[in-house]
Amino acid sequence: MTSEPATMDTPLKKLVGEKTAKALASHLDMHTAGDLIYHFPRRYDERGEHTDIRSLDVGEQVTVLAQVQRTAVRPMRQRRGNLLEVTVGDGSGGVLTLTFFGNQAWRERELRPGRWGLFAGKVTEFRGKRQLNGPEYVLLGEGGDGEAAANEEVEEFAGALIPVYPAAAAVPTWVIARCVRVVLDTFTPPEDPLPATVRAARNLIGIDTALREIHRPSSKEELYRARRRLKWDEAFAVQLTLVQRKHRAADWPAKSRPPRDGGLLDAFDARLPYELTPGQRSVGTEVAADLATAHPMHRLLQGEVGSGKTVVALRAMLQVVDAGGQAALLAPTEVLAAQHYRGMLDLLGPLARAGELGAADGATRVELVTGSLGAAARRRALAEVAEGRAGIVLGTHALLYEGVDFADLGLVVVDEQHRFGVEQRDALRAKADQPPHVLVMTATPIPRTVAMTVYGDLEISTLSQLPQGRSPIASHVVPAAEKPAFLDRAWRRLREEVAAGHQAYVVCPRIGEGPASEEEPPREDDNGRRPPLAVTEVAPLLAEGPLHGLRIGVLHGKLPADEKDAVMRSFAAGDLDVLVATTVVEVGVDVPNATVMIVLDADRFGVSQLHQLRGGVGGGSAAGLCLLVTEAMEGSPARERLDAVASTTDGFKLAELDLEQRREGDVLGATQSGRRSHLRLLSLLRDADLIRDARAEAIALVEEDPELLRHPALAASVAALVDEERAEYLEKG
After folding, report:
1. Where are the stretches annotated Disordered (predicted)?
2. How far is CA 447 from CA 373, 450, 651, in A?
3. Collapsing DSSP states into helix, strand and coil, what is residue 211?
């Protein structure tokens, strides 16, 4: 080990030794001093404020601060030797049993009643008691008889605030703390990347002080200031990236597509059978103005299921066709692409029948391009697209494959953007000579701070009112475990709706046998929970049991495309009473006659997902009903989440709740790029004001120095915090 000054790039093996460095690398992906310094404590324990043992979950890897209450040694039944059982408590009434196998008399002497320690391990349960088997531990402070504990590790925890790090079984928190101390003792801080003017204006401490105080806080006040500075760095890095990209995009050339009097758009508006809502009009005006500029539109359109986003998108597509271009709409599934196709043909009527009898003057053609088209139909559709006769092209990402060429692609509409990868959108963009205008649609309401942080380079439009004629949706939780009679009542309620001439969905979290796919969660029965209910298992049980005699169809993502389409068509036509499906129905499949949805194992779905699912009922004039069936007990977090969904139809409220309950790295795309997220402290909900301030500073800085040439340390820091892959993810939403 070296005593030379350490920099951010110094390999850890030079500082903490080969063996420890290897453990840090293989278990926590840490290789340099910088990796370790930016591995921040997850929380801080205080002597007088101990972890609540009662809140521990079975299966969780934990570190608890607790006091030894009593020890007991007994012979093992199955093999030779003794078992040492140590009962520890945290002062809150919670107790935990530590078990050590083998003859370890020295441990019994060490773990005397009254001694405090940090104990780390995986929580298991034995005969109703929670325990840690063979935990790692370090004892703190003085022994019960006043003897001062002298070893170096114990000194690490002499301060009032004890850092507890995200750890691994092989690298417990105190080993990380010891390594951090070794590094900090020889660490030469990097040049502070934050311009002094910003530091002064926002009252932020220097980076060296912040990094030292977050690991070894001298007081709660100093810890708060350290966290605030490091959160600022994260927010500022993201906002600078987004503002720079927005700035660069404004310089890209795009073909202007201004509205044309007397064109298809005017004809479409004249034949629309209903009035546009004020929201649709104002968003339409924003989009029309964007399309008329010589820079690419980059707009996000958010609105609940049924708020009329598709009509806004279709009007934008017609404006582009009027200006001589083509428009493509990407849908996440063939079912949805086919539904958009049928819906647009109905809305456009003779305006979409160029070359056919009864076509309107100046009509265009609408083509559907999906992977399941037959060879002859595909050749014909591709020729229509390549020669420019098809002004509107709909499809899944099959549109992106080789062989689909556009004559003049002017607008790309992406429906439910979170279903598409970055590469797929890039491939579509590459099909135009100049960057096309882009309109991204989502039915998942996005809280303001997420919009600012994840979609900060898109202009955002929101459709908040539902069109006239959409009915309210009532939602109720059905507690199947506590009140089985309620579940029987739910099936009777479904039969009543069918008897009244309506239709119903039954949604399950899983398809059936075979590995989990994107639309079904993994079978999380490690802790004794049964696997989630599956479509292929539930459908026959319903057909033989509570829904006997009804016409039941099955829909899930593993069915061949033509079969999926056939099932959806027969449900839409009213030939099926009940559709048993996975979340493949989540993305806006539109059957106005469907009035009831029963979601089984509803606690296995996310909040926004449930909100979006229930948008599938109540699309017609009859009221919608959504029943959330769960075995989650009253008072549990899962049950509280479902109660929240049932209590409001405000998608924005639910989106905030969803955000609180998800790991925020998911929101920032850490899972998208597969890279380790460097955004560790920032909370999109709690730090909304800080993010807003960081955005204001980022806009001011980029306006005067677009490429950060006068701030090289800041540019390097941004590159480290928001790596290129994540920057691309942020850019493309």
Report:
1. 511-531
2. 39, 5, 9
3. helix
CA dihedral for 28, 34, 39, 41, sign (positive or negative): positive
Specify whether the CB–CB gap between 214 and 226 falls below 8 A. Answer: yes
Which pLDDT score is estimated for 212?
A: 93
Token couple for 41: 């404590």
Give CA–CA dist 85/76, Å, rounded: 11
How deeply is 386 buried, as exposed, middle or buried, from its count of CB atoms within 10 A (0-12, 13-18, 19+)? middle
pLDDT 10s digits, 168-189: 777 888 889 889 999 998 888 8
Tokens 């691309």, located at residue: 728
Rounded CA-CA distance 636/650 in Å is 22
Strands (E), 76-115: 82-89, 95-101
Bigger pLDDT: 99 or 52?
99
What is the spatial distance between Cα 155 and Cα 177, in angstroms, rounded to a whole number?
Answer: 11
- How many residues are given for the chain? 733
CA distances from 115 to 88, 94, 155 (A): 9, 16, 15
Separation CA 314–CA 349 (nearest Å): 13
- 719 class by beta-carbon count within 10 Å (0-12 exposed, 13-18 middle, 19+ buried): middle
* Residues 40, 17: Cα–Cα separation, whole Å: 21
Residue 114 to residues 49, 110, 133, 464, Cα–Cα distance (Å): 16, 11, 21, 60
Sign of the torsion formed by the C-alpha atoms of 64, 67, 68 and 69:
negative
Tokens of 150: 């002298």
Contact indicator for 364, 339 with CB cutoff of 8 Å: no
Residues 639 and 477: beta-carbon distance below 8 Å? yes
Contacts of 401 (CB under 8 A, 6+ apart): none
Q: Report whether pLDDT(233) > 60.
A: yes
Beta bridge partners of 505: 579, 597
* Neighbouring C-beta atoms of residue 263, cutoff 10 Å: 15
Q: What are phi and psi of 465, to 5 degrees?
A: -95, 145
**Would the pLDDT of 259 be above 90?**
yes
DSSP string, 256-308: -----TTSHHHHHHHH-SSPPPHHHHHHHHHHHHHHTSSS--EEEEEE-TTS-
Mark out the alpha helices in 99-218 (DSSP H runs).
105-110, 152-155, 173-186, 196-202, 207-215
- SS3 call for 388: coil
Do the beta carbons of residue 214 and residue 223 sit within 8 Å? Answer: yes
Note whether 293 and 311 are within 8 A (CB).
no
**Side chain identity at residue 621, one-letter code:** S
Whole-number Å distance between alpha carbons of 345 and 352? 6
The mean pLDDT value for 157-165 works out to 68
What burial letters (b/e) apply to 174-188, b meaning 16+ CB within 10 Å?
A: bbbbbbbebbbebbe
Question: Which amino acid, residue 365?
Answer: R
Q: What are phi and psi of 290, to 5 degrees?
A: -60, -45
- Give percent of the chain above pLDDT 70: 84
CA angle 177, 180, 184 (to 5 degrees): 140
Q: 700: Cβ–Cβ under 8 A, 6 or more apart, which residues?
A: none
Q: Give, in degrees to the nearest 5, the angle at Cα 376 between 370 and 378.
A: 25
pLDDT confidence tier of residue 258, bands split at 50, 70 and 90: very high
Non-local (6+) Cβ contacts of 529 within 8 A are none
Joined tokens for residue 292: 């008329």
The answer to whether the beta carbons of residues 613 and 585 sit under 8 Å apart is yes
